[in-house]
Amino acid sequence: MSNVTFSVSKSGYTMTVLVQQIGPDLLLTIIGGDHPHIGTVTTFSATTPLTTVRFPSHDGRVHKDDVLAQTLAQQLKAQVSGSCTITAGVHVDQISQQQIKAAAGMAQNLGQQVSAWLVRHPVTKAAPQYYSDQEQPR
Predict the structure, then answer these.
(1) What pLDDT is recorded for position 41?
(2) In the chain, which residues have pLDDT < 50?
(3) CA 20 to 30 Å from 123, out of 15, 20, 57, 77?
(4) Taking the mean position of all CA atoms in its chain, how far away is CA 66?
(5) pLDDT reported for residue 89
(6) What does the alpha-carbon distance between residue 9 and residue 12 come to, in Å, rounded to a whole number?
(7) Residue 90, Cβ neighbours under 10 Å: how many?
(8) Where is the Prenylated flavin chaperone LpdD-like domain (predicted)?
(9) CB-based burial label for 36 (10 Å; 0-12, 13-18, 19+)
């Protein structure tokens, strides 16, 4: 298992992605701002479409952090050989329009950093072995 962290700062706040490579799978955690949290969970694999769950926020609306997750997912989809789960939660108190606009570029930058890291650290583990339908554990 490999772990790495990338960050980008702009417009007065920092966004970070924690990357865990677990066998052929990826677990990415996008956090930042004044109150990091898990606002959304986005999943996909080489053979399944992008799916997102948006959790309720403190004021009754739902979190919109999937916009950040989807930015990374689109950049990484071709590189993922297993599954990919992305949790995202960035909250900046009293966020400005400038900070909202900066978020897309920050997520794009993080995706580029993760993509470059994946090129340098490809999955090299052997595939798991399974019993055939005619076999049973001994």
Answers:
(1) 98
(2) none
(3) 15
(4) 9
(5) 97
(6) 7
(7) 27
(8) 10-118
(9) middle
Domains recognised in the chain with CATH numbers: 2-120 (3.30.230)
* Residues in the chain, total: 138
Q: In degrees to the nearest 10, what's the CA dihedral of 85, 91, 95, 101?
A: -10
CA distance linking residue 112 with residue 72, whole number of Å: 8
Q: Are 40 and 63 in contact (CB under 8 A)?
A: yes
C-alpha 7/C-alpha 21 separation (Å) is 17
Task: Kindly state the tokens that stand for 29.
Answer: 């955690």
- pLDDT at position 1, please? 66
Residue 73: what are its φ and ψ, rounded to 5°? -60, -45
Residue 74's nearest CA partner among 88, 89, 84 is 84
DSSP per-residue codes, the chain: -EEEEEEEEETTEEEEEEEEEETTEEEEEEEEESS----EEEEEESSS--EEEE-B-TTSSB--THHHHHHHHHHHGGG-SSEEEEEEEEE-TT--HHHHHHHHHHHHHHHHHHHHHHHHS---PPPP----TT----
